[in-house]
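quick one, two chains, predict together pls
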Amino acid sequence: MATLYPSLEDMKGHQVLQAQAAAGVRTPPTTVVTEKPKLTSGTGNMEPPVLYPNLAELENYMGLTLSSEEIQKNLHPEDSTALTPVGPTPGQLVAPLSGNSAGLRRAEIKPGVREIHLCKDERGKTGLQLKNVDQGIFVQLVKANSPAALVGLRFGDQVLQIDGKNCAGWSSDKAQRALKKANPEKIVMVVRDRPFQRTVTVHKDSTGHIGIVVKKGKIVSLAKDSSAARNGLLTHHCICEVNGQNVIGMKDKQLTEVLAGAGNVVTLTIIPTVIYEHMVKRLSSGLVKSSMDHSIPDL
Amino acid sequence: LNNHNSTRFVEVIVHIKAITALSVKPTCIDLLLFCFSPIGLYPRLYPELSQYMGLSLSEEEVQRNFPVAPAAQPQGQLVTRPSTNYMVAPVTGNDIGIRRAEIKQGIREAILCKDQDGKIGLRLKSVDNGIFVQLVQANSPASLAGLRFGDQVLQINGENCAGWSSDKAHKVLKQASAERISMIIRDRPFERIITMHKDSTGHIGFIFKNGKITSIVKDSSAARNGLLTEHNICEINGQNVIGLKDPQVADILATAGNVVTITVMPSSIYEYIIKRMATSIMKSLMDHSVPEV
């Protein structure tokens, strides 16, 4: 199975490392195994017989094959750094440059269904606004400092069940009513993680640019030969999150600031504009700007 | 043994051999076998390793340095898949349909060669300033390389495809060397998979027409799992069904087994990708084979 990478720069970096490893120096363990006996025999002075036999002589010790090759196969080089290309298990991502970027992990869209428990605050609100899209119920708004924000709900999450009842085919009003009537102590919701969105990981160049032009939260154009172009970012898409932090409704200047402060590896969560506009239909823009949750999620 | 690296370990083997000199002590074999064979092969036959010579050679220590291959997971119980290793699936288990359909979150390289007619069997389309796979012909180099409808092509032979028109992309492919074409692919970015289970009557719970989901049946697996209308079915258990007649698709669904993973794409995007592709080509040439996993 082909190796997977989160971004193009990781792929190129990994290929360079592999090329280096193939042409490069033998790794230390090979020399260590044979080195030890030589060292000790040197310090053995005149003590016959040799105190520490050559490992090669162990080859037929008690019928066990203990030649250098066998040991090499079983001993893992302890000094392998994060950059050394070890064969990845199929399906795992290799990321020599993106590494263990916290942004990547925060933004990661997990394919699958999870259950969450929500309570209402003292005013009986959840801070959640839902919308019907294509006979499914989606999170349209998560208010800042609300129970919904605390439980980790994000714009675009699909709500499959509320208190055990399927939300399929509900209107937005019906969904809001269900939330209103629900028990303030505990609301059980089954959620699918942001089905309409996807993440793209890009790297900043030496001038700190990713290579996109953003207007009103939408990607309007891509710079030639930039990381955005290389990694296949598309126009007519809205940016929902930067490194997992919700940026919907932010002014373009604020968004640029978040991008600037984001570190060298930036994971953008994007959604096609057509679908985005469908989702925020009839969502008051005042509400979006003033109360939407823009906090950085925990890992 | 504070520092558990290979050098020290070799030292230990050598050291112990020397100490025992010519007498063959069982403990020696135990130590050596312990490291190179599965843990627990000689459980209580020999004294505890953890006390041997005051060395800390407990199972945990050794296991940390000598990872043993993980035992095969029993079917139907707690199963983890490599790239989505945080999912628990007691009912679905290690279903092959999911593995075939799974959309990998990342980019990969695919190497293609042209066939004797100089063709690859691939048709590309420009969407939102990116290049996407519109058609993969059956029994073509493209299908061999595992390309699928909806895959995004990021680079062809090292050149970024960003901003190219469909014509330019086809021209580049035509001019490329027949021996080796390197493509960097992002796996089906506009699609997603939904796994559902058939009920006792064999139904999943959705109605479709011309490959598009038009309604969801109440209280069905489709409703429970949040399948949406206005989406086109691209694959069933990883097998491409685009361009197949509705009865053919129904047939595939019926024979699919109890766990069905459908790959869907929002209709607005789907319709844009297949725009100006003759329906005859879609029906006759498209690759509908079952992918390997």
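Confidence is low (pLDDT under 50) at residues 26-59, 76-91 of chain A.
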